[in-house]
C-alpha cells in the first residue's frame, strides 16, 4: 500500500538499521550515527513527496518494509530505498514489494526499471536477480577527503 504520514516513525526505525551495506557506512569519515540519521531522513522525505511513491508492507497492521519509486520523463523507473525489517525477513515480503513496485512502474508507463546497489550487498543482489533484474553495469567509485595540514 502507499505510505502515509502515520508510517513515518516506523519506517524511520527500519531505515536506521537497514542500509549498513551502503557506501556511506563504509566511509570512516561518516559516523555510524550520521549514516543512520541520513537513511531515516531519506525515507521520511521520500514519504513526504521526495519520491513519486513509497510502498509499504505490513504485518499485523505494523509497517515492516518499504520501497521507494520514481518514474522519470524518459519512461524509466528508479528504485531508491528498499528495506524489510529484520523481524520480517525470509517471508517473501521483499519479493512482494518489488512485484508491487513493478505494477506501479508499469501503470506509470515505464519501459524499464533501474536500481543501484553496492557490490557487497549480496542479499539485495539476490532479491533483485530473483525478480528478473539483470546486471547492466558495474562501477567503482572512489573519493578522497582532502585534509588541511
Q: Helical segment tally?
A: 5
Shape: globular
Helix/strand order, N-terminal first: HHHEEEHEH
Q: How many strands, what sense, and barrel or not for the largest sheet?
A: 4 strands, mixed
Flag low-confidence runs: none
Helicity level, as a percent range? 25-40%
Strands side by side in the biggest sheet: 1-2-3-4
Global mean pLDDT: 92
Question: Pairing-aware structural class of the strands and helices?
Answer: alpha+beta
Task: Classify the beta-strand content into a percent band.
Answer: 15-25%
Detailed description of the structure:
A four-stranded mixed beta sheet has the order 1-2-3-4, sandwiched between helices. The protein has 149 residues and is of the alpha+beta class. α1 crosses α3. Helix content is 39%, strand content 20%.
Write a short abstract of this structure:
By secondary structure, the protein is α+β, with helices and mostly antiparallel strands. The chain is 39% helix and 20% strand.
Task: Give the helix/strand layout.
Blueprint: H1 8-18, H2 23-26, H3 32-50, E1 53-59, E2 62-71, E3 76-84, H4 93-107, E4 112-115, H5 122-130
Parallel strand pairs: 3-4
Antiparallel strand pairs: 1-2, 2-3
Helix pairs in contact: 1-3
Task: Give a quick set of tags describing it.
four-stranded mixed sheet; 149 residues; 20% strand; alpha+beta; 4 strands; single chain
Amino acid at each position: 500500500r502507499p505510505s502515509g504520514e502515520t508510517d513515518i516513525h516506523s519506517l524511520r526505525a527500519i531505515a536506521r538499521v537497514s542500509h549498513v551495506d551502503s557506501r556511506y557506512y563504509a566511509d570512516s569519515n561518516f559516523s555510524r550515527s550520521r549514516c543512520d540519521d541520513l537513511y531515516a531522513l531519506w525515507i521520511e522525505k521520500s514519504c513526504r513527496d521526495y519520491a513519486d511513491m513509497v510502498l509499504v508492507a505490513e504485518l499485523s497492521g505494523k509497517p515492516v518494509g518499504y520501497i521507494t519509486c520514481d518514474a522519470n520523463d524518459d519512461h524509466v523507473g528508479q528504485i531508491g530505498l528498499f528495506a524489510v525489517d529484520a523481524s520480517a525477513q525470509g517471508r517473501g515480503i521483499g519479493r512482494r514489494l518489488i512485484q508491487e513496485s513493478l505494477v506501479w512502474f508499469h501503470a506509470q508507463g515505464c519501459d524499464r526499471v533501474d536500481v543501484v546497489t553496492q557490490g557487497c550487498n549480496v542479499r539485495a543482489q539476490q532479491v533483485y536477480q530473483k525478480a528478473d533484474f539483470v546486471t547492466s553495469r558495474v562501477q567503482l567509485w572512489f573519493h578522497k577527503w582532502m585534509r588541511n595540514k
